[in-house]
Amino acid sequence: MIIWVNGAFGAGKADVAHEMLDLVPESTLFDPAALSECLRRLLPEKQLQEVAEYQDLPMWRRLLVESAASLLAEVGGVLVAPVALLRQEHRDEVFGGLAARGVEIRHLLLEPGETILRERALAHAQAGPAARDRALRRLADYAAALPWLVQDAHVVDTTGLTPRQAACAVAEAVSAGGGARAIVQTPEPRAETVASGVLLFDDADRVLLVDPTYKPGWEFPGGIVERGESPARAGHREVAEELGIQVAAGLDLLVVDWEPPHPPGHGGLRLLFDGGHVTPRTISRLLLPRDELRGWRFVTEEEAADLLPAARLDRLRWALRAREQGRPLNLEAGQPAR
Length: 338
Fold this sequence. Notes:
By secondary structure, this protein is α/β, with parallel strands linked by helices.
């Protein structure tokens, strides 16, 4: 298990985590500051200057997952991780990666109150204008993240508490089951895969997207084709599992996209099918698995650009063109094969 102690800059995460080592049996501190130091030494300065925080580096997030899972496998027991995750897509990537490795996560949020956070940030900012701007930016990031954080984490009010008292409150919450998050545990692929996605449309011809809890960005309903299963059958199954509805008609193929391997991913074939229009009555019956999907919405192609990662957006755009033309398209890395 990993007890993930989240919170704003100045919330006292590190102090609380150290105190928890005395309260949680067989616990080990997992401090990712070592990862940041490692990347500072390894990466070119130019690349580091392109991001505001180490967390913005995909390599940092991959190392976070791998090192946490490896350390837990080595020492056993419980890891206590004082790590701020204030972007939901980062939370999904990290927690999803750990869940895929069978790691249970308890997500706790320290909340000492806005006044205390601001006082601590400004006190830390005495080093100069740059430090002050950074501290205030971090506070703004935390304020922007609060709406989803309070929905995802177990909030521990630490107002007026010492680090020891706050650690006791966190330990008690964990003991009572607080912060438990059931995240879909799809094993990491070990080779190329075939995946089927299904495009469903409303009466305004907008396409349905879903928001997974286990990876960043929005997605189409669908998933990996299982052994011995046809891609179309997989599309029908995934729609039923993810949305709670049945697609009555057959699925028309729109695109076949070869996704090249990008380590640590193995790539493979990605198929998109046309599932046709869904009626308002069917839409009203949509039922999402809470441990896998947190939301859905119908969007235009333009609106999808703000939700889908680049590779999925390319796939969608060509799928819509194929739908208009009435013929499937063969893609490689999101573009028509030549």
